[in-house]
Amino acid sequence: MASPNGGDDFEPSLLSFEKLDRSSPDLWPELVPGVAEFAASCKNPINNSPPKWMAELESEDIEMLKELGSLTTVNLMEKIKGLQNLAYQLGLEESREMTRGKFLNILERPKKGPFP
Asked: Are the C-beta atoms of residues 76 and 68 closer than 8 Å to each other?
């Protein structure tokens, strides 16, 4: 940008060629502690071993994760609603079976008799 006097020598005077040493934690403290260590760990070569949470998954589980990950938001919400409806229906069925068991006295504890 030109100065009001018509000279362009004002901007170069603002440049600084000073080299700043960022290795001092006193001069440049971390805003979030631990970020430097995390960044250093991310620079390591990628391991071919799966993460711990994936170690116990079977191939069917991984396929299900891929399928769910490929769904759109609307399709994912429909899937969740279907699972909620299924859980509700299972709860109703369990309640009916527990009531049936109560009426048939199959859930009663056996009375202590002469034989253990």
From this structure: yes
Task: Note the pTM of the prediction, 2 decimals.
Answer: 0.45
Tokens 């502690």 belong to 33
Residue 102 token pair: 């109560």
Distance from chain centroid for Cα 97? 37
Query: Which stretches of the chain drop beneath a pLDDT of 50?
Result: 1
What span, in angstroms and rounded, lies between the C-alpha atoms of 29 and 105? 71
User: What is the per-residue pLDDT for 85?
Assistant: 97
Calculate the average pLDDT of the chain. 79
Contact 11, 1 (CB under 8 A): yes
Q: Token digits for 114?
A: 């002469």
Eight-class DSSP state of 25: T
Secondary structure (DSSP) of 47-109: PSSPPHHHHT--HHHHHHHHHHHHS-HHHHHHHHHHHHHHHHHHHHHHHHHHHHHHHTT-SSP
